[in-house]
Amino acid sequence: MGGPADQGGQGTDNFYEAPITMDNQTYPTCEHYYQAQKFPGTDEESQGLHERIRNEPNVGKVYGLGQGSVHLLRPDWEHVKAFVMYTAVRAKYEQHPEILQELLATRGKIVAAPSTSNWQSLNGMILERVREEFRPGGPLISERRMRALVKLTSEYTADAHGGRGVAKGVGITVCDTTTCDNSSSLTRSEGEGSVRRSCSV
User: Fold this and answer.
1) Which of 53, 96, 164, 176 counts the highest number of beta carbons within 10 A?
2) Angle between the 97-104 and 119-134 helix axes, to the nearest 10 degrees?
3) CB 130 within 8 A of CB 139
4) pLDDT tens string 21-31
């Protein structure tokens, strides 16, 4: 876990120390922000864990802190976790323009560092989405691929009709399996739960 992608420099690592300020709180890395958001409760135990994660000086311990206390985990975590990481990564590049230039210098698919579950794939898609959103003059990738990246890294709400997820804010419904007319695929499967969404682009 951790480590830079195949292009874009050290800043592509979620463990890279580039503090981000979100909701008037500062987090040393994207990983700090991501793990802390698992526990948004207002009770003393949740707030204490959130602050312990946020202030942990050793980023290597942050992941472990986020894996316990399942009873405090926000119930919709499986639906929002990719979007939470996207939010952190976007903030990192927005607040640290010096590393943004390295990301903007990349082209094509970004292969993130090996990680748990399907996070290598998700992290690569998040980096690609952020790059294209910040690219002067607009995205260089196809509209279809851009829409797929947004789908797979957005926040989802449950839909009562047939096991679908609705991407909030982008007006797209993503079924359990979506088949397009191109052979290459992007897949988002949840390692911590049973939700699976996929789209071929």
Assistant:
1) 53
2) 100
3) no
4) 999 999 999 99
